[in-house]
Amino acid sequence: MRTQVAIIGAGPAGLLLSHLLAADGVESVVLETRSREYVAARIRAGLLESSTVDVLAGCGLDGRLREQGLEHRGIYLQWPEERHHLDFVDLVGRSVWVYGQTEVTRDLVAARDAAGQQFVYEISDTALHDLDGDCPYVTYVDIDGREQRLDVDAIAGCDGSFGPSRKAIPSSVGRTWERTYPFAWFGILADVAPSTDELIYAWHAEGFALHSMRSESVSRLYLQVSPDTDPATWSDDQIWEALARRLGHGQNGWELHPGPITDRSVLPMRSYVYEPMRYGQLFLAGDAAHIVPPTGAKGLNLAVADVALLAPALAAMINKGDRGAADSYSDRALRRVALHALLVVDDDHAAHTRRRL
Ligand code: FAD
Ligand code: DHB
User: Fold this and answer.
1) Number of C-alpha atoms within 13 angstroms, CB side, residue 48?
2) Is the CB–ligand 1 distance for residue 96 below 6 Å?
């Protein structure tokens, strides 16, 4: 098979890239190890920054978001007995939107299906070849066990932190900054109306807690826990009691309303930045190049920001033979990533990165 761009990974980065490339007349094939249903159901990010909403609006993907998403002016920061509202709109003129990654994925898949995008789901043994030559290609085994080869002009590695793209770059070329934190977040999804109008980030002597949401009837909450916590060992009552204590149930008349827990998982806290985000004809985007802990709700937003830079760069390279934007892609994308990663990588590396930038 031949196409212009092989996109490895049907997460938000890969899906959005296929959409933006198509708008610029560039053809792509999206390759994905998981099934279509699995990709659609994954529960992950939930908070969209205004820059992400701008990108989605720019390509006509903000219809359901504006109808069903919840626009928030800011957040609450609290510690015991005190809750403060930070109004982003007053402070910086921008809002944030609560709209689940599952919904963003659904909108993207619907738009790509309507446009006839070629997806290949449930592949295995994805391998990247001849990245530093003019004729790169990807091989994989399809759902029926047949070996396949896809010849392309460029490969977009949008395959998350464990995918093969980053690993295909020779170790002599790349550098990583990494930090693993000694705590994790225990996240739950509950079928209950949020007990707050905007997100509450709470400091507490027992550990941090966050009250977020996915809609007017679904709450998303997090507790800081030790990374070896087994979520199955906590009863629902234990979870709600810990959340009530940390989020300040009863303070100034505020109440946390518990409800049926429909999903639970423990998320490790890790920061990881890889550079460069480009090697030959391979371009990395999203979690394939960088992981930030869930604390700042940045991962999905950074993935969208990468792709917003990458799509026009690939289109200029493929349509016009203009390699300028492709050549500067890695530096431009890393500048934004590093602004956030600097807050979380260790001080020596942060100082080094700051000097480089
Ligand atoms: P992914 O969404 O990881 O997509 C990569 C895709 O590549 C996957 O579909 C994967 O199956 C596929 N793939 C992997 N290997 C191969 C292969 N060999 N061949 C083909 N395909 C392959 N971010 C936030 O902003 N806010 C949050 O609140 C938040 N919460 C999170 C909670 C959880 C539990 C997790 C795991 C992440 C969370 N994140 C959050 C991060 C956010 O979800 C990611 O940053 C975002 O999904 C990145 O998108 P991506 O497309 O780069 O990668
Ligand atoms: C969510 C997660 C975060 O880390 C955050 O800062 C805000 C919201 C969420 O999953 O809803």
Assistant:
1) 26
2) no
The pLDDT value given to residue 179: 86
Predicted local confidence at residue 335, as pLDDT? 87
Please tell me the residue having the least CA distance from ligand 1 atom 45: 299
> Which ligand 1 atom is the nearest neighbour of the CA of 161?
3
The one-letter code for the residue type at 239 is: I
- With a 6 Å cutoff on the Cβ, whether 101 touches ligand 1 is yes
Global pTM value:
0.92
Ligand 2: distance of its center to the CA of 294 in Å? 6
**What 3 state SS string does the chain have?**
CECCEEEECCCHHHHHHHHHHHHCCCCEEEECCCCHHHHHHCCCCCEEEHHHHHHHHHCCCCHHHHHHCEEECEEEEEECCEEEEEEHHHHHCCCEEECCHHHHHHHHHHHHHHCCCEEECCCEEEEEECCCCCCCEEEEECCCCCEEEEECCEEEECCCCCCHHHHCCCCCCCEEEEEEEEEEEEEEEECCCCCCCCCEEECCCCCCEEEEECCCCCEEEEEEECCCCCHHHCCHHHHHHHHHHHHCCCHHHCCCCCCCEEEEEEEEEEEEEEECCEECCEEECHHHCEECCHHHCCHHHHHHHHHHHHHHHHHHHHHHCCCHHHHHHHHHHHHHHHHHHCCCCCHHHHHHHHHHC
Is the CB of 100 inside a 6 Å radius of any atom of ligand 1? no
Cβ contact 53:328 at 8 Å:
no
Rounded mean pLDDT for each run of 10 residues along the chain, 357 residues in total: 97 98 98 95 86 96 96 96 96 96 95 97 98 95 98 98 96 89 94 98 97 95 96 97 97 96 93 93 97 86 97 98 97 82 51 48
pLDDT reported for residue 357: 44
- Answer for the pair 207, 224: CB distance below 8 angstroms, yes or no: yes
Question: Residue 341: its pLDDT value, please?
Answer: 58
pLDDT of residue 245: 97
What's the confidence (pLDDT) of residue 40?
Answer: 87
| Structure confidence at residue 345 (pLDDT) | 46
